[in-house]
Write a structure and sequence with these properties.
The complex is a heterodimer. Chain A is mainly α. Helix content of chain A is about 70%, strand content about 0%. Chain A is rod-shaped, with a radius of gyration of 26 Å. Chain B is of the alpha/beta class. Chain B contains 6 helices and 6 strands. In chain B, the strands form 2 sheets. Chain B has a 4-stranded parallel beta sheet with strand order 5-2-1-6, with helices on one face. In chain B, strands 3-4 form a two-stranded antiparallel sheet. In chain B, strand 1, helix 2 and strand 2 form a beta-alpha-beta unit. In chain B, helix 2 packs across helix 5. The chains are: A mainly alpha, B alpha/beta.
């Protein structure tokens, strides 16, 4: 006997079309196009979940760099000094501190500077 | 969860600019400054990358007023050899100008072009560029904003 699988067939399509809600034009209604659009969207979502972690880290480093340069230390010098001082605050919190509590951040920069060899902390280019 | 943590990063909204955060005005004397190095310094300030609140999708940069832009310096033989190209759109319409000619005709153009090409090529980038005010001579009409001197390398 030939199996047509009516309800299974409908359910499968409904599942995909549900994910395609809000897509532009035929991409949310036409089965063939919607299926491709959903495949691509899920792929992009997968990639972006991974990229998000790298992008945020980049942003924190950028902010910490800007903040430490205001106090005359480059990012690498600042982080190097903190490591030597045994400070284990992560980049996210450092970026947060730089915005919410500039004074605490300034003290951290001083701490980092005190653990650096003398010439490195002198006359660095502020940016 | 990792994701949740990242989403607690402070992200600025564009509406906050001018309310919670203000823009500064900076003054730069271009006399004797090297073209590209100065442009890079200015571009950072226009983008706001010198501030801890830097947010990629918001223009958080400051204003930069440049005076004496006609007295910019370049190294080597760039005055005669650096060329600026533009195309009129017609066949054979490629025009070229040396830096020397451009400085003669439009004293502020070389620095403006250098900064423009260092900024993002986007709507946001073009908006950032509007905060750059360049003047060929020592005067500028922004006294009311009381621009602070911007440190640059000698």
């Amino acid at each position: 006997m030939r199996v047509k699988g009516g309800t299974v067939h409908v359910r499968k399509r409904k599942k995909i079309l549900k994910l395609a809600k809000g897509f532009r034009g035929k991409r949310h209604s036409c089965w063939r196009i919607a299926k491709q659009a959903v495949m691509k969207a899920l792929k992009n979502a997968y990639i972006s979940r991974r990229l998000r972690k790298r992008e945020f880290r980049r942003l924190w480093i950028l902010r910490v760099n800007a903040a430490s340069r205001q106090h005359g230390l480059r990012y690498s010098e600042f982080m190097g000094g903190l490591t030597k001082a045994g400070v284990k605050i992560n980049r996210k919190m450092l970026a947060d501190l730089a915005i919410r509590d500039p004074e605490a951040f300034a003290r951290l920069v001083e701490l980092a500077r005190s653990h650096l060899p003398a010439p490195a902390s002198a006359a660095s280019r502020s940016s | 969860m990792a994701t949740k943590g990242m989403q607690r990063t402070i992200v600025m909204k564009k509406e906050e600019m001018g309310k919670t955060w203000t823009r500064d005005w900076y003054l730069v004397d271009a006399k004797g400054q090297t073209l590209g190095r100065l442009a890079a310094r200015i571009a950072r300030v226009l983008m706001g990358k010198h501030k801890p609140i830097y947010t990629p999708h918001v223009d958080v940069g400051d204003y930069v007023v440049v005076v004496n832009a006609a007295h910019i310096k370049v190294t080597g033989k760039k005055l005669e050899q650096k060329k600026y190209y533009r195309h009129s759109g017609y066949p054979g319409g490629l025009k070229e100008q040396t830096l020397e000619e451009l400085l003669q005709k439009h004293p502020t153009r070389p620095l403006y072009e250098a900064v423009r090409r260092m900024l993002p090529k986007s709507t946001l980038g073009r908006r950032m560029l509007k905060k750059l005010k360049i003047y060929p001579g020592p005067e500028h009409p922004h006294q009311a904003q009381k621009p602070k001197p911007l440190e640059t390398l000698p």
